[in-house]
Design goal:
Blueprint lengths: L4 E4 L2 E3 L5 E3 L13 H17 L19
Antiparallel strand pairs: 1-2, 2-3
């Protein structure tokens, strides 16, 4: 088992004692979004990434796509 312990509902503790945080982000329909909204989203994303730009943080992104049946 890679993650033997839960720290809380969204954080796991690895065997080596590292903390692994799970964050779920929802998407948005950028094809139909207004330019000002895209600009705000871009700024928020950049500020978030800049705040984590140190050797103490590592990021891994996994995209889950689900087919919508209509």
């Amino acid at each position: 088992m890679l993650y033997p312990e839960h720290w809380n509902s969204t954080t796991l503790v690895t065997k080596d004692g590292w903390l692994l945080k799970v964050v779920k982000l929802s998407g948005y329909a950028f094809e139909t979004a207004d330019d000002w909204y895209l600009s705000i989203q871009y700024s928020i994303r950049n500020q978030t990434l800049q705040s984590m730009s140190s050797a103490a943080f590592d990021s891994y992104f996994h995209i889950i796509r689900r087919r919508k049946y209509t």
